[in-house]
Design brief:
Layout lengths: L1 E3 L4 H13 L3 E7 L7 E7 L2 H6 L1 H16 L5 H32 L6 H23 L38 H8 L15
Length: 197
């Protein structure tokens, strides 16, 4: 009986172990084919005359086969699914750890604090709404500003449909107030001395 030698390593290992347990001789032989390299196969050498007459050999083989019957069948697909689940769990954990460090280092926020994270996310979404209003309707609020230096990660923008956003129009800035609001302190030479602090 012959089997291709290029079968998956797990299957080849199982076949060789089973043939050893059953006392069946096996060899790996070169088979000539159309390719220059040829191919190999595993040959199991069954000696039917001795084995069928030897009741002791037959009983020994039945015991071995009974042992294999009792083993659970492991599906390769289950192994792959479990490995993928393990990988995904590890990736999710690493990603969550990275985000926690990001919020702590950049924004001094605790990622597990729902109130702090909720405020950041609300203000960010509110800013997106302000921009849309600005370009499509005009200024919706003269006083609105984003109170953080960094944005939340996109994967944390959840439950947006539940947010109620409204703006208070307020009054426009005077020109020098506007400059003081947008220029860094190093650029104070661009405003009159009376406004420099």
């Amino acid at each position: 009986m012959a089997f291709p030698a290029d079968m998956p390593p797990k299957d080849r290992s199982f076949l060789l172990k089973l043939s050893d347990d059953l006392g069946i001789n096996h060899t790996i032989e070169l088979v000539e084919d159309s390719s220059d390299l040829g191919s190999h196969q595993i040959c199991l050498e069954l000696d039917s005359e001795d084995d069928e007459e030897d009741e002791e050999n037959l009983l020994a083989r039945q015991r071995v086969l009974k042992k294999y019957d009792a083993l659970a069948i492991v599906s390769e697909e289950i192994d792959v699914d479990q490995e993928n689940l393990h990988k995904q769990t590890r990736i999710d954990h690493e990603f969550r750890t990275w985000k926690a460090h990001y919020y702590k280092d950049k924004l001094e926020l605790d990622y597990d604090n729902e109130s702090e994270m909720g405020h950041l996310i609300f203000k960010y979404v509110e800013g997106l709404q302000w921009i849309l209003y600005y370009y499509y309707r005009g200024v919706s609020s003269w006083e609105w500003f984003f109170p953080y230096h960094y944005a939340p990660r996109p994967t944390d923008l959840l439950n947006l449909k539940d947010m109620k956003i409204s703006f208070k129009l307020g009054r426009p800035f005077k020109p020098f107030e506007q400059l003081m609001g947008v220029l860094p302190a190093q650029s104070k030479i661009h405003i009159p001395e009376a406004f420099r602090v």
